[in-house]
Amino acid sequence: MTNSLYIVRNYRPSDFKDYVKLNIEAEKLGPSGRHSSPQALSENLGRPNYSPEQDLFVVEKDGKIVGFMDVTPELKTKRVILDCLVHPEHRGKGLAKKLLGYALRRAKELQAKVARVNIRQDNTVAKSVLPKLGFRVVRQYLEFRLPLSDLPDTACNIYSCHHLQPGEEDRLTQIQNRCFADAWEYNPNTTEEIVYFVNQSHCSPEDVILIYEGDKLIGYCWTRINSEAEAANGERKGCIHMIGVDPDYRGRGIGKIALLAGLSYLKNKGVRVVELTVDSKNEAAGALYRSTGFKRWSSSLWYEKAID
Fold first, then answer.
1. Residue 166 lies in a domain
2. Mind listing the pLDDT tens digit for each residue in 129-167?
3. Same domain assignment for residues 289 and 149
4. Sign (positive or negative) of CA dihedral 247, 252, 258, 259
5. Rounded to two decimals, what is the model's pTM?
6. CA 271 centroid distance within chain
7. CATH code for the domain of 79
8. Rounded to an integer, what distance in angstroms lies between the CA atom of residue 279 and that of residue 234?
């Protein structure tokens, strides 16, 4: 068995069934929390500002897809996010390096200046390989977890809380981009992207809780419910995907109000455990989560490579 038997090429729509099969098999052999259902994968390939025929590369062997490299363009910040998966039975054959070559050529076409990769802290193989490919660690993200069994009932007090309604997506886009304008990892969203993401099969506009003062949107909490994790182990998990507070309203406890509103919503949905991820350099957010009872349980690393 030699590398010459492997073919790297652009993804084709006819690859979809094999692409799904690869994701499902890899997730069974090494659970990572990836969404691997056909519908979730189809929605991911159809996201705005992304072309699977140009931005997804696959490795084929004997007519079977055994690996891929996904290139997510974030062109407003001149970068791409890479996601590589090689079937465990085909690892150790230099396929990640081959895929990276294709990904970097695509990144240059997109005029990106930087490529980034996110891996779990315990991924020893990737931690060994990435430096050899020219990547360096630039950030650590902490992962927190909270059981919801003892969460008290909460209210928004003087602020109005309600779920995202049709027609509010533009306001959510504006406040999100305003809240995270200076965040290290943030790529500004468009209203088209917000509409697409909140209407995916594993999401809902109801998952987004908006905080108003009068008629002014001042904060929000975007939650998610991981139905695939529930199906895998019988434990219904939720996620605090994002919390934002208008910069002019920070320091008033609105972040905690938004967080508690999101946790209460997830608890009422039958979620037993909530997880979230936070930049290790965001000390204010880390303190907020710890004050609510979250405990650190894992972490991930962001690697970066300049594109020549």
1. yes
2. 999 999 999 999 999 999 998 776 666 667 899 999 999
3. yes
4. positive
5. 0.90
6. 20
7. 3.40.630.30
8. 29
